[in-house]
Amino acid sequence: MKKYSTLIILALILMLSCEKDDICLENTTPYLMLKFYNFENDTLVKTIDIDSIRVLNKELISDYTAKSFDSISIPLDINRYKTSYQITSKKTTDTIYFSYDRKDIFVSRSCGYKTNFENLAIDSTTNNWIKAYNINTTIIDNDTTAHINIYH
Fold first, then answer.
1. How far is CA 51 from CA 3, 62, 94, in A?
2. Which top-rank group of organisms is this from (predicted)?
3. Whose C-alpha in 10, 12, 37, 88 is 20 to 30 A from the C-alpha of 55?
4. How far apart are CA 125 and CA 127, in angstroms?
5. Alpha carbon distance, N-terminus to C-terminus of the chain
6. Containing H/E element for 46?
């Protein structure tokens, strides 16, 4: 009996000394969501054939290569206050220059920090296939709703 009680006490000590697994279940840094609309009828969602999307003079975002979309989610640079994208549709490229402020928020020990973006603005855009745009919100704290409407 003494042997069992020692074993039970040892098992309890081991179980109580274990730490909880840190698994991040929180949302991370949100993406910028663009939704595409018909220029002639601005309430009508209009898909766009995207040849490619790339950060200006950098990597190609392969998820959006040679596909049709009515909306896209693209990351903003968390280390800078500006990000520029080249979006090519039907072999015509437009460049959009975004500026914003960053706000780092501590989520938890397992998730670390996430970055929300504030004061989102479009500094300039080329107007090849993009006819107009509307910024719906200047605060990017989720990626479930469209932040910017693009009319083409």
1. 72, 10, 12
2. Bacteria
3. 37
4. 6
5. 81
6. none
Taking the C-alpha atoms of residue 69 and residue 89, their distance in angstroms, rounded to an integer, is: 11
- Domain range holding 144? 22-151
DSSP labels for 54-69?
Answer: EETTS-B-GGGSSEEE
Does the pLDDT value for residue 27 go beyond 90? no
Considering the domain boundaries, does residue 10 fall inside one? no
Q: Is the pLDDT assigned to residue 80 strictly greater than 70?
A: yes
Establish if 145 belongs to a structural domain. yes
Helix or strand or coil: residue 32? strand
The whole-number average pLDDT for the span 101-107 is: 93
**How many structural domains are present in the chain?**
1
Question: In the Cβ-directed half-sphere of 114, how many Cα atoms lie within 13 Å?
Answer: 17
Tell me which amino acid residue 38 is: N
Is residue 86 a contact partner of residue 125, using CB atoms and an 8 Å limit?
no
Strands 32-37, 148-151: pairing is parallel
Residue 150 has pLDDT above 90, yes or no: yes
Residue 144 domain-assigned? yes
Q: Token match 């998730």: residue?
A: 111
- Separation CA 89–CA 48 (nearest Å): 7
